[in-house]
Structures are given as C-alpha cells and as structure tokens.
Amino acid sequence: MSENNKNTTSEKDKNKDAEKSSVRPEPVISIAASDRENTEIDIPVKAKKLRRERRKKTMNTIALSNIILIGALLAGGFAYMTLLPHETKADDENRMLTKFPKLSAKSYASGQYTEGIADYFDDTVHNRANIKEFIADNLMPLKGRKYGGSDDGAELYGSSAKKKKSISAVTTTKPFIPEITTETTAVQAATEPATEEPAPAEGELTNNILIVNKRGITLYGGGWGTELEYASYLNAYKEKLGNVNVYSMVLPTSSSFYLPDNYKDLAHSEKEDFDNIDGALQNVMSVDAYSALNAHKDEAIYSRTDHHWQPLGAYYAAEKFALTAGVPFADLSEYETVTLPGYVGTLYMYTQSATLLNNPEDFVYYKPKVPVTVTQYDTHFQNPVVANLLLDPSVMPNSGYYMVFGSDERIVHVNTECKNGRTLVIFKDSYGNALLPMLTSSFENIYLCDIRYFELNAIDFINQVGATDLLFSMCSFSAVGVNRNSIYNNLIR
Amino acid sequence: MVFSRLFFIYIFLPLCLLCYALARGTKAKNTVLIIFSLVFYAWGEPVYIFLMLITAVVNYSAGLLIGKYQGKKGDTAATAAVVVYDLLMLGVFKYSGFIVENINALFSSSIPVPDIKLPIGISFYTFQTISYIIDCHWEKVKPQKSFKNFLLFLTLFPQLVAGPIVRYSTIEKEIEERTITLSDVSYGLNRVALGLGKKVLLANQLSIIADSFLGNIGSSTMLGAWYGVIAYGLQIYFDFSGYSDIAIGLGRVFGFHFDENFKHPFICRDITEFWQRWHISLSTFFRDYVLYIPIFGKRRKYGGLFLVWLCTGIWHGASWNFIIWGLYYGIFVFIEMKIGKKNMKKIPIVIRHIYSKFVIFVGFGIFYFEKLGKLGTFFKTAFGFGKNGFIAVQDKISLMNNMYLMILAVICCFPILSSIKNISDKHYVTKVTVSSAAAIAAALLLIVTSVMLVDATTNPFLYFRF
C-alpha cells in the first residue's frame, strides 16, 4: 500500500508538474542550443536569461524535492498506521487501548462512532510503548532542567487543575488485572463517574508528584478538618461494636520521610493530621505506624517508582500493630524473600518521567512459609473460590504492588495455623493489602475488605464472622480524602 | 475532527491529497474538496452538518435574490432577512443557555436552561455567510450562481472549524479557476508542518503549566500567577496561530491563497496594533461590518467602537468573562485613540512594549477564568494581595523544569522565520540554501510532532488509586 501511495504521490507531482509546465517558458536545453548562433552583443543578455532559467529550474527542483519528502512522510505514516498491527494493551498505563467502535444509529448520531474510529487509530499505534519511552527519554527532558542539580534534581508533576474531582475518581477507578478485567477501555477510565461528594473545599488534597533523588513522592495536601471526621466514624464503629477491639492505623506515605528539607513546603505534615486523629479517637486504639516506619526510613520501605509502600514497610507497621493487639508476630526470617528486579511502578505511569523509567527498583515481597487457606469472595461476601495469597509473578500486572493481593474488589478470608481464637477484620485501601501476609502468624482468621468496594453493612458483617478485632488501615490520603466517606457509608448501609 | 491528531495527518489528509491530485481539472478538484470537507465536518458533527447545509442553501438563495433585485427593495429585504437568520442561528445555538441563565438570575425566574451543544465551527461559518451576503448587497462581489461553488466556499475544510474567517471575495476567483505551482504546494506543506509543531510541541506543553498554576489559582503565589498567565497567553497564541498556519498551508496546497490571520502579535507596541496582528480575520470582519453601522448617530465613532469590542468579547464565548475581556480591550483602544497616534509615538518604545504586554497578559487572565470569583482571586494574587506570598518552591521547580520550553516559546513569538526568508531571498545562493534547509526542517518537525502525538492519547489516570 505504501508503494502504491508513493506512486500516486509522484503521479500527483507529475500532475502538478504538467500544470506548471503549461505556464513555464521554454526548456533550458533549447535555449542553450540556440545560444550558439547568437551574435556577440546578444550573448550577455542570453546568458542572463539562461542563468535565470537555470535558477528557476533549481528552485523548482528544490520545491519538488520538498513535496516528495513531506509526501513520502505522509505516505509512510499512512502505511504505518494502516498496515502494521495495532496495539491492544498499554502496560505502562494499566489499561486496554481503545477498541474499534461498534456502529449503531445512536453511536453514529452522537459522533461517537466516527470519533471512535479516529481514537482507535490514534490510540493503537504500532510500537506505542517504545515510542512513548523515546518521548520520555529523549524529548521531554528538552523542556528544561531539573531543579537543584542535573542528576538528583527535582521535577514537579501536577494535575492541580482537576484536583477536586480527582479525589472522587480515586474511589471509582478500578485496578486493571489482566485475566479478570478485560473490558476496561480508555473511555471508561477517563469518564468514570464521580460518585462521592466533592473533596473538602478548604484544604485541597494535592495530586502533585515531586521527583527528587530518583524517587517519586506523592505530595500530601492535608485534611484540614476531614481527619476529625475520619476519627468520628471510627468512634461510631466502636460504639456499635462494644467488645470488639477497634484499631486505627493510618499509614503515612513517602511524603513524610523522603521530602528533602527545601521542599517541605510542598506538602502538608501527615504527622500533624495523625496527631489530630489520635486526639479525637474514643476507645479506639491508635497504632503508631508513623514512628515504626520512621525508624526504618533508610531501608526500602517505600517504593521509589510507585505511590505505594513496599511490603517491607508493611512488615514494620504490622509488627507495631501486633504489639498493640497483643498477638504473636513472625520474624521476617520466617518468610521466603522474593525479589522482582527492574520494577517501574505507577508513578512512572502518572508522570512519564525519564528519571523513574531509567531508575527501576527491586520489588521485594515475602511469602509466609506457614501454610494458609485463602478463600476469595465477591464484595457481597458470596461466591467463594479458593485462591492463592499472592499472585504468581508471571501474571503480575504492571503495578507490581497489586501482586500482594491482586484486586481490591474482593473480600478475602485467610485461615491460618495460629490457633489463638482471634479473628481480625481489616478495612483498608490498597495500602492495607500488603499487611495481609505479615499477619498470617498473628490471627486465626483474617478477613480483608476494601472500604471502597464493600457492599454490606459493616457491623452485620463483623458480627457474622465473629470478629474479635477490627483494624482500619489505610494511607493518609484515603483517611482524609473522600474514601473516608466509604467508612461511614458501610456503617449505615 | 481536529488537525492535530495522527488520524487526520496520516489517514484523512493523505487520502484527500491523493484524490485531489488524481482529479483532473478545477471542477473535479472542487468536487473532491467538497466531499472531503463534508466528511471532515460530519466526522465530529454527524447531525449538525444538516444545520450547516441548510444555512448554505439559505445564504446561497439569498445571494441570488440580492443579485436579481440589485439596488431595489428586494435586495435590502433579502439582505436583512438572511443576516437576521444567520444571527438567529448563532444566537440559538451558541447563546441561548447563557441568555436564559441571566434572565433567570435577573428576574429570579426558573425558565429551564436549554441544553444545546455548540455546533462545531458555527461562529466561523456564520461570519463567512454574513460577510458574503453584505458584500453581495454592497456589490463588492457578484453572487455565486453555482451552489456547488458556494458550498465549497463555505465548507472548505482547512478553515471550516477554527478559521481564519475566509471571505468570499478572497477566494472568489480561485474557486472557479486556480493554478497550483510547485512552490505553492511545497510552501503549503511546510506551513502545515509548522502549524502542527506550534500546536503540539509548544501549545500543548504550555497548557500543562497554565493549568497547574491558573487552574489552582487559590494555591498560587504572585509569581506563580504571572508565570501561569504568561504560559497561558503563549499557549493560546501558538494554538490558534498554529491552526491558522495549518489552514493557510492546506489552502495553499489546494491552490487557495488565504490572508494571514496572525502577524506576530506580541511584537506590537500598543493595543491597537495588537489587534491589527491578532486574529486579523476577526478584527477586520468587525471593522468592515460592525464598526460603521450607523446606529449611534453622531457618536458613532465611539459607540461603534464599544459595540465592536462587546461583539468581539461575546464572540469568543457565551460567558461574562469574555464580555469583560472584550470591553477591557475596548477601553484601551479608546484611550489610545484619545491620546492620538502622534502622542503615542512620543512615549518611549520600552514603555510602550511593557504597557502593551502587561495589558495583553492581564487580558489573558480575564480570558481564562470563566468563573468571576476565581478571576477575582487571580487579580488579588497577581497584584500582591494573595495569601501565598511572592514565590514558593513549586514555582522555582516548574520554572526550572520548563526553562527551555518557555525560552523557545518566547523566541518563536518573534518574526524570525520571515526575516530569514526576506534576507535569503535577496541572493540566489542563500535562497537555495534556505529553501533546502526549510524542506529538511519541515520534515524533521513533522516527524517530531508525530512522535509526540503518539503520547496524546496517554491516559495516565491522573489520580492516585489507593
């Protein structure tokens, strides 16, 4: 087809040439021939004319070459877009690419069909991932320099314009797991409706990311009062549950530990909000994960390229929780360590920063050596299936973090060999997933539920499974953002 | 469909150029252009295309009537009727929501606000038809007898959705007869590449800065507000002038010579000059068809002036900030008129540059904020009454991260390419060198732009999922 196209381009050029030649004066060669018979006086005039003609011809040759050059690019691009196979999946963005639209009267009338065709071609360009890496690596760095040093300097990425809406999107965007979710499309992801109320008007949670010292840091924007709402919801749970131990373990993000001093102004203090929460909790036990993590901040407890922590961070937090709850806790030596090198996580997906792309990290997780029985249920606690505690790395989604558990839209029950009669329910966000393997020697039964996708009355559920302990464990962004509303909604459902 | 997407550049355009090259004779070429223009428009507006076609029939017929009754009552009646029709269509489809909202606010009524989607390009093609009809009435042009030719004038896709507002008189002759030279085609293709580069490499990247600093004006510092608004002004310029470049370039490839729409507006020395360089097809439209409407009697000089600026404002969008924006410029043009050209020239050039750039970029602030509350915050922040101080670390990081982009954008505001061309044209050797270099530069620009467009569909779930 490209061959075809090129032929027709040159045909076009010939055509233009023909049009042109009708107004063009005599060809140069015939003038040159007639030159021989000229008188001496005529020669300079003729020579001038000859030179003018020659120059004109040269200019036309340049113009023609120009047309052929751009024409060849257009023809080549046409062939590239139409003949080469279309991509179907974007690993770095965790989504399926746009599919060819289905024709219906409605989709046509709304323009979605035609625009959908154009979207399909634009979105599924052959070798898309490599081209994007080329952009991240070679083109984007041309925009400027890193702030404060070329190697470890800072880059700031933000989506502040959409800040408020964005928080609601957090609650509804679903993680992409290859074998389970295949219908996720770009359009769906982009237009996922915001179901929750808007984020707090005063203090806005920033979705800005700072990249400094080869680490992406999510900048915490502060609760500005909403942290107290979080505390009051937990108090309400405790009031209804009576004898069940209720714990609050709000998890700091990398914003607390890795922001260099001169960038401290970019983020609000998470510790300050945690202290506010502690002050407002009534009969709910607070677990100080902040100190536990702070003590180990020189270890790889947070991912550099992902907005989550690393399982090692979860280990230290879980240790603190076990201590607070008075349950046994298995040392790290009782786990099998698995290292996945070359990991580039979600923060690259958000920023497309070459710094992250070119500085992958090890994703390290820990497999309990003790046998456990894992059952997965849907979000209504129905349809149980036997499952593995950890995903097989070969089916690992791009956000390797999810391999700890796989998906948030399930309830997981883990039955362990720790026969202490304690049953723990964890209400969590994605940060909480990493806690699960770390508590398999501490409780007899663990139920892991995501607050955002839970569809039952929480109190009924807790009573139904006979929980002795209830742990709320989510990161600061969730506790003060709209995700906190899910805690309340699950209470009154 | 928009120009700055791979589907247009590498599928629609090659097919269109191919068919155009294969078509023999102007008539066949016109047919090809009409078909591709209709497909182009229907791609985004499969329903409203009928609105445009009806408008075409109405204006075409009115043109014939005007021609038939030239100088008689029927001429004036037909002109008035069809101008009212055109304005009514624009009013209904563009402004009815805004009008009803304001009536409701003013009289505390609760008339349901009509939810009408704005048909693509209606602001542009309506002005084209109005200029055609009035020119017919003034006998500046002869009414087009062939509907096909009229349809081509109206729907010609390079200028259909985002201007420039090409007048019938500009392309009257070329619709029926045009020669296409090699230099036209090569110039046109290069111009298209330049326009795409401006839009994709500059405007799209500048918009990220503008959105972070203006979109979040409540957290911006004074420096951040100015940085954001300068990035935004540059973004709008490269976006809009890039589109005009593509339109003019494509027009040239097809053998049409459209007028320039932007002439390096930021090198202006006063506001009056700015509008002689910015969106020229719009300001000349208002100058020719609105400024001298004799409705203001003796005061028509100034009455007309403010009417023009009111219209300019509201043409840009159905929102109060655009009206304020238009009148804001009206005030400065008025002041400059009062000072007088001679006196203006006496003011040192540096001061005139500072004054005009200041007015223009504050103007972009008004243009950006459709919500008047946010506009107020912008003004407070920009003039030192904000709550976030003068400078913060995020300003420093962003300025550093976008340093070369900003420098390049500022450089591109100067007429460098046209200066190079003017100088090189004087000598044969430089002319050959520059023309050859231009071809290579255009090709490289097209490649880089296309590569960047692969990223345009990236959907990085801008938000963290916890």
Helical element count of chain B? 21
Give the total of domains of chain A: 2
Find the biggest chain interface: A-B, 107 and 85 residues
H/E series of chain B: HHHHHHHHHHHHHHHHHHHHH
Describe the secondary-structure layout:
The complex is a heterodimer of chains A (493) and B (466).
Chain A: H1 2-23, H2 28-35, H3 42-83, E1 89-90, E2 95-96, H4 105-109, H5 112-123, H6 128-139, E3 155-157, H7 163-172, H8 186-191, E4 209-212, E5 215-218, H9 226-241, E6 245-251, H10 270-280, E7 285-286, H11 289-294, H12 311-325, E8 335-343, H13 346-351, H14 354-357, E9 361-368, E10 373-377, E11 385-387, E12 411-415, E13 423-428, H15 430-433, E14 445-450, H16 458-464, E15 469-475, H17 476-480, H18 483-492
Parallel strand pairs in A: 6-7, 6-15, 13-14, 13-15
Antiparallel strand pairs in A: 1-2, 3-4, 4-5, 8-9, 10-11, 10-12, 12-14
Chain B: H1 6-22, H2 25-44, H3 49-68, H4 73-107, H5 122-137, H6 147-155, H7 157-160, H8 168-176, H9 182-214, H10 222-253, H11 271-277, H12 280-289, H13 300-315, H14 320-339, H15 341-346, H16 349-368, H17 372-382, H18 393-401, H19 403-411, H20 416-424, H21 428-454
Helix pairs in contact in B: 1-2, 2-6, 3-4, 3-5, 3-6, 4-5, 9-10, 9-21, 10-16, 13-14, 14-16, 20-21
